[in-house]
Amino acid sequence: xxxxxxxxxxxxxxxxxxxxxxxxxxxxxxxxxxxxxxxxxxxxxxxxxxxxxxxxxxxxxxxxxxxxxxxxxxxxxxxxxxxxxxxxxxxxxxxxxxxxxxxxxxxxxxxxxxxxxxxxxxxxxxxxxxxxxxxxxxxxxxxxxxxxxxxxxxxxxxxxxxxxxxxxxxxxxxxxxxxxxxxxxxxxxxxxxxxxxxxxxxxxxxxxxxxxxxxxxxxxxxxxxxxxxxxxxxxxxxxxxxxxxxxxxxxxxxxxxxxxxxxxxxxxxxxxxxxxxxxxxxxxxxxxxxxxxxxxxxxxxxxxxxxxxxxxxxxxxxxxxxxxxxxxxxxxxxxxxxxxxxxxxxxxxxxxxxxxxxxxxxxxxxxxxxxxxxxxxxxxxxxxxxxxxxxxxxxxxxxxxxxxxxxxxxxxxxxxxxxxxxxxxxxxxxx
Length: 431
Ligand code: AMP
Ligand code: MG
Hints:
By secondary structure, the chain is α/β, with parallel strands linked by helices. The chain has 9 helices and 29 strands. It binds adenosine monophosphate and magnesium ion.
């Protein structure tokens, strides 16, 4: 296959949806246990039944005095009722004794309500008789009343022992993690995060951080994709870099295959040029399922599968193509393996706006169009960014986001309403 198309071009291309259908067969990775302090944002794999009551003791919901509610009946500003104060109950330092008739224990929010008391009266409804010391009163006057059971948090009121508090599918929120911690759960079963590793091909490339010599360029794709994988909660393994040539590519691919990655990425060497041998090499190590997709950019994208089931994505070397292929195919796969309930939904914030200028496309091809947003006739409108192709990554730096033109459209006329997938969260970037 590879030989027949090199230097000739793709004869027929697969559809974007063909690739998606294949990737959609992947299942989330197996479960692992993570510390409760690390579980927020991860996808729960088992339902959680509360092993204990929260709270495990009756506690005060306000600052005031623990009393027998009926002792407050009839109390008012005009008719203060006097109670004896036995002591104080503080959080973690309960009052040891019991509260009888006409007695009270000073109490603060969250402290255990002592035995005998059945209500807590707010400090605002009490006053200290003349001569009583605030630090250690012996008596208190009630100037209002509370019903029994008022202002007390009951055992299991927050979560009752035996209650199913969380069940999958659930991306754990910070408050979920907090509740799990309150239930004394130390480790939480979540979907393992997929490990992603990239084989970077190209004799012209130098690693990031180096000054390119004549005829060299810096490998920016690995930096770009590391950030995208982190966004999608994958784990990025250090990339492998190899020069062009069949032997070198084969060695690189073998190293990638023998590594720890759940998702294998190859950048470059997948087009129809002389050095673009990756599809051929991949076919010797697994199945080459797709090569060439009806989209722009990223049409040289390829997809293979190893005998152990892992997917290998061949990403075009052009950085914008690489970004595009990531958003269409790799990101969803990372999210799927990580247990995301909606892996195919793009994670960008979206804005629905009208086009200020037309976008040209072709029926039968999906386009990934970088766009700016500019004020036009008093409102924000979408302005496609004119570029000289997929090699200029700065087009994606200048862009506010992308618009996807679906395959059945010839283009989009001015004033068409479009969905812009924004690169930034508008609440974080200001006007
Ligand atoms: P290829 O897909 O290997 O034919 O590469 C297409 C274009 O992308 C060439 O101009 C390459 O120099 C460039 N390119 C390939 N790999 C990278 C990379 N990792 N980072 C930046 N540019 C790249
Ligand atoms: Mg290359």
